[in-house]
Amino acid sequence: MLQALGLDPSEEAIYTALLARPTASAQELALQAGLEEAASDRILLGLAARGLVAVAREAGAGIPDQADRKPGPRSARYRLTPPSVALAPLLAEQRNALHLAETAFSKLTEQYRNTAAHTAGGVVEVVEGVEQVAHRFHQLQCGAQRELLVFLVGAPTAVPREDTDGTESSLLDRGVDFRVVAAKSYLSGHEVVRDVREAVGAGLELRLVDSLPLKMVISDRERAMVPLDMTETGGEPSAIVVHPSGLLTALVHLFEKEWAQGRPMFTTPGGVREEPAADQQPTEEELEVLALLLAGISDRKAASELGLSIRTVERRVRRLMDLSGVESRLQLGWHAARVGWL
Questions:
Q1: For residues 195 and 182, what is the distance between their CA atoms, to the nearest angstrom?
Q2: What is the CATH number of domain 279-339?
Q3: Which pTM was predicted?
Q4: For 208, phi and psi rounded to 5 degrees?
Q5: Closest by Cα among 204, 306, 245 to 315
Q6: What average pLDDT score do residues 73-82 get?
């Protein structure tokens, strides 16, 4: 948590251990943090030199002089400098460093665009080899700040799972608009369905189409990556990275066209299902029954209020459950709220 402010894990362990007590010795903190006493003493000396901790005065001691602010002997007890005082300068330093890095990044990006705009290499970049393709794919995913658009075709791409497992959740946590269009052939295999279901449940938007012309990932509409099929030649995996150009605009347009034509997917207790087609949507009469049931009204009373037989009410509820792909009325209520039937 504090590594971004320049504290290593051992320093953070000592610092947080001292948070729970007014004062403590190096030996006490070493036991709590699971470190050697010598290491604890060395870390405390370093923290004190940076103003994060101070040597605590004994009860009844007079006004501290300059020496009181320096680290004491091994028997000394340490206290925490208020975090609002000690950590604020470190936070400001990191913010300034990040601002300078962002400024440099913007200048370098603009300079590269101005230089590369006049060459074909500035529009399309070829990446070859398993590691290089996986690395660039990971860069495009992690670098997305606003939007990530993906085509999934056939079997999952040969990108190491350790490079992708945490990336999707990180993007969704950061509020990145993550949209995926998948070909039917992709959603085959228990593990793929499970992963997709988890991602959709976390906020990923997924639509299904019968087929797609290519695999693709587009990051912030500024860069796109398209794997090349090298199976026929037996060569190593390769891909092209497309930078801002008419070609990139065409790829974005292709994604939006497929997205508009795709069938929305949603999660159910049994997996991932397609959104019902227009002719499979509930009727007004069925929604009237559903509204009464969600209000806690029994089948018999609902039948009486609507002027129907109990069998008709039960038949309409059964059809709603079939449309939803659920097995219980509780799940039906959850699905109705999920897809906005009421």
A1: 13
A2: 1.10.10.10
A3: 0.49
A4: -115, 140
A5: 306
A6: 76
